[in-house]
Design brief:
CATH architecture: 2-Layer Sandwich
Helix content: 25-40%
Distance between the termini: 44 Å
Strand content: 15-25%
Order of helices and strands: HEEEEEEHEEEEHEHEEHHH
Number of strands: 13
Number of domains: 1
Bound molecules: zinc ion
Structural class: alpha+beta
Radius of gyration: 19 Å
Length: 256
Amino acid sequence: MLRAFCLLALLAFALPPTARAEAIGGYAAGCQTHAQPLPATGTGFKRVRAEKKRYYGQPQLIDYLQTLGRKAQQAGLPPMLVADIAKKHGGPFAYGHRSHQTGLDADIWLRPGNGPLPSRSKDMVNHKLYILNRHFGDDQRQLIALAAQDERVSRIFVHPLIKQAMCKTYGDAPWLGRLRPWFGHSSHFHVRLHCPPGSGSCEPQAAVPPGTGCGNELASWINDKSGALKAGPRQPWRPTLPAACTPLLNLQEPDS
Ligand SMILES: [Zn+2]
């Protein structure tokens, strides 16, 4: 039995890189092979904005999202709404985020997913008063905590005020360090997984700093709101991609 498993494992690594699922390059300059689609619905989750066909991810990310959905349901939370993951072959989006290129990033809306499928996310921040609004509560805190506890997570981007709320509730939980304050994440949080084992062409991001990040680092984000004001359309992001991405990105994406 063990021998058969080893043989299989050997075979998997001996195959040419395009024959198995792989994240290639960096989160903001890369592509992916053999991505899987996240099903439209499943235990504890629903897909939103599916018409954009950005619901393909590496098998590890799809498994992560399905596992998180199950944990959310077990905790009695409403279904979570999963928005952009990546295109089937990855690569830059025509508009929107810079990352999400290797099938290891996913956006999860913070508004609850019970009732009819919403077409818009909901902001959790009163930007004028710079406080969290009434939409952010226990359900949101619990979902983010469940999301951050999975060891496969490299980091999760959240609005600085949301990080502050998580620090207040969860004190010195070791996974708090994975929550990274970043503007633009007040209606969704953005999960980024580590490069999966065996993805030799995947470029990891530097590890998050040690500690919870609830002290001085968070204070500097809360005090400096200059980045919060820089909204508005961004130029399309056209990075230089690894050579291995060229043939993949020449492949036809599913009809969109
Ligand atoms: Zn995102």
